[in-house]
Design goal:
alpha/beta; single chain; about 280 residues; about 40% helix; globular
Length: about 280
């Protein structure tokens, strides 16, 4: 009985916190300002998919000492009255090293690739989260998950409805979180979308994964990796959806401006909505 009373008190305080302590409208910036902060470069381009209203997305920039910086992208006109689902865009590259490798200027989350993915996710009615990555990408992702859990009322995010999106080498920390259940954080994730990468370690039976497989991905070993990933997922009983693109290249969502690229991105957004927004 005592535990029940404490739990009820906790949830009452949480509701009160959400009502009184939340991001203010003044703290949100237009997504155009976030886009303007992205320095031009040869590979700095948005995805090949657009949605009506995506330029009306707004962004909260969160800089807390001792933890990764965050950007939370919110749907247009979101009023913080009811917490919403969120998709985390996983990043495996150390910010400083990545910026140096492309001649300085942008961290991974500053690229138009990440920004535009966050835009389209937010336009569907969910929040999208991008974040700073330090030397250890798994620990950075864990810190972000911990912050989302502890600050869900402030952020207006429903911690029980989180998904992850990852592409290429960014898939590896995402899969680690799902498979190892580190600190219990993996248990809260409801679904994942992986693009052109994946390893053989799998989350529990029934976990929903959308896997985008480009047939002309010519990075050495990737096609064999795709086959091993799919075989392992089927063996583990994962709820696997395969989005095949026989003519697609690695990073097709950036480099192949085709109807099939746009179809797969739209399918991915629908996948997240089905698993995070619909009961």
């Amino acid at each position: 009985m005592k535990k029940l009373v404490l739990r009820c008190l906790y949830f009452s305080l949480a509701l009160l916190s959400f009502a009184e302590n939340k991001i203010s409208q003044d703290e949100l910036i237009p997504v155009a300002k976030r886009i303007a902060e992205s320095k031009p470069g040869e590979y700095n381009k948005p995805i090949v998919f657009r949605m009506p209203g995506m330029d009306n997305v707004r962004v909260a920039k969160i800089n807390n000492t001792g933890m990764p910086k965050l950007e939370v992208y919110y749907p247009p006109n979101f009023a913080f009255q009811t917490p919403i689902a969120a998709v985390i865009l996983v990043n495996s590259f150390n910010d400083a090293e990545f910026s140096a490798s492309i001649g300085g200027g942008n961290a991974m989350r500053d690229l138009l690739w990440f920004i535009s993915w966050a835009q389209v996710i937010a336009t569907t009615g969910m929040a999208a989260v991008t974040y700073e990555t330090f030397d250890k990408p798994i620990q950075s992702l864990l810190a972000v998950l911990g912050y989302l859990r502890n600050q869900e009322c402030y952020l207006g995010i429903d911690y029980s409805r989180l998904g992850i999106w990852a592409a290429s080498s960014h898939v590896y920390p995402a899969q680690f979180i799902l498979n190892e259940r580190t600190g219990g954080f993996g248990k809260i994730l409801k679904c994942a979308a992986f693009y052109y990468s994946g390893n053989e370690s799998m989350p529990p039976e029934g976990f929903p994964i959308l896997f985008a497989r480009p047939g002309r991905d010519n990075i050495p070993g990737n096609q064999e990796e795709f086959a091993r990933f799919i075989a392992a997922a089927k063996k583990a009983g994962v709820d696997l959806t395969i989005a095949d693109y026989p003519e697609g290249e690695h990073a097709f969502d950036l480099v192949n401006d085709t109807d099939r690229s746009r179809q797969i991105i739209a399918q991915t957004l629908k996948f997240f909505k089905e698993h995070l927004m619909e009961e």
